[in-house]
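Give me structure tokens for this 125-residue protein.
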Amino acid sequence: MMNDPNLTIKTKYGEYNNFEVKGWRGHIRHYAPVQAETAAAVSKFSKWQNLHGYDFMCYGHWHHWGISTFNGRLIFRNGSLAGGDDYAETFGSYDFPTQLMFGVTEEKVGEFITPIVYSNESPYV
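Here you go.
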């Protein structure tokens, strides 16, 4: 497929994307620090919040899901459909194939938050 002259793939997203859901401003990007508690992470999340004015943020990269906050704003680290693959192993991380789902209403970000796990072996199914 890569050498097919009749096939073109275009994406409209770059390093990040800002969007709105029910009046809340979201910010999504592939990479962010794995947690929000170190000085370096605080610097990045603070700068992104100043630049993009997000009410909540979503990112991936780390192959395991998680939830944290930064200055009262929810930060969702999504999982990976691949779960623990060779890439995740290189940084010593393993998790079951998981995606994080959350709901947004006009009143609240995170009305519900739940991992969707694609494994019968997971202890949190």
